[in-house]
Amino acid sequence: MVWEVDQDGLVVHWTLVGDDLDRVAGKRDAAKLGFALLLKLVQSLRFRSNNTMHAPIIDGGELVRRYADSSTQTYRRGEQVPIRGVVGGDWLELLY
Length: 96
Fold this sequence. Notes:
Strand content: under 5%
Radius of gyration: 16 Å
């Protein structure tokens, strides 16, 4: 599938408005730009796969998307964060 984008389409999909502006207000310089880009990416991208090896990454992306519009800095108690198969080695031990 080919998706053709013109300048107006880019402006519509990548301009920060409303709450998005509030979310980046506390950031500065490169962090502000990076956060703004990640915010718009999270709102825009959707991934799918029939391969079970990809499931933790896809589940993690969905978790991030669910919380993208939230002002909270932590996930709800009991929220299942897909770590196994994503984080490995010594890092995994630090999480438990």
